[in-house]
Amino acid sequence: MTATPRRLPGRGCAVDARKHTAALLLTGSLLALAGCSGRGDDASAPSSSPTLRTSSPSPSPTASTEDTAIIAAYTSSWKAQTEAYSKASSAGTGLRSNTTLTALADIEKDLSTMRRAGQVTTGKPQIDPKVLKVTHAEIPTATVTDCVDTTNWTLVDKATKKPVPLPTRRLIKYASTATLELWGTKWMLTKLTALEQTC
């Protein structure tokens, strides 16, 4: 997604929507695509586990098992991200278990911004991931497509618990893609891209 940083009225912070990491799936929908919010989006969410609706299994048992492992790693990363945003901290979330340091660096940057702004999230996103393709190379790579629904994932002021005003034209439900790599026996999320299109 190519966009220039934008600001919400009364905010002094700009969120760079050009960064396509796991962290920006949240800011892409709640902040950057909305215009930006210079504050965090983590506090305590009532439920931090994303809803998963998987596609029908592949005909091949091997492919099906592989797809299941990929979706499990992707969903686990989303669950940890949601928990991190709900408290503006990745501590104790298990993000490092299936999210690479490159993706985690951008998440931490967002969490830091959220803490300074005094914002967190409540609720949880609904996801619908499907394995698009798996490339068997020296380092096997998988591409996952998703439809992220943030209807019940709300950015709030940590102190007042009131929702942060955001432009109504932002994408509440948007398409995204993710890249995962097989590191040893574990699939790791390396890149998450929020697309400027609904799904």
How would you explain this protein's 3D organization?
With 199 residues, the protein is of the alpha+beta class. The chain has one domain: Roll (Nuclear Transport Factor 2, Chain: A). The protein contains 3 helices and 8 strands, in the order H-E-H-H-E-E-E-E-E-E-E. The protein has a 4-stranded antiparallel beta sheet.
Radius of gyration: 16 Å
Number of domains: 1
Strand-residue fraction?
25-35%
Q: State the helical fraction.
A: 25-40%
Parts with pLDDT < 50 across at least 5 consecutive residues: 1-58
- Helix/strand-derived category reads alpha+beta
Task: Compute the number of helices.
Answer: 3
Describe the global form.
Answer: globular
- CATH topology group: Nuclear Transport Factor 2, Chain: A
How is the quaternary structure best described?
A: single chain
Mean pLDDT: 76
Overall strand count: 8
CATH architecture: Roll
Please report the first level of CATH classification, the CATH class.
Alpha Beta
Q: Could you give the order of the helices and strands?
A: HEHHEEEEEEE
What does the largest sheet look like?
A: 4 strands, antiparallel
Kindly report how far apart the N and C termini lie.
Answer: 15 Å
Give a nutshell description of this structure.
The chain is of the alpha+beta class and 199 residues long. The chain has helices at 23-32, 61-87, 101-117, and strands at residues 51-52, 119-123, 126-127, 130-135, 141-149, 153-157, 173-183, 186-198. It has a single domain (36-198), classed as Nuclear Transport Factor 2, Chain: A.
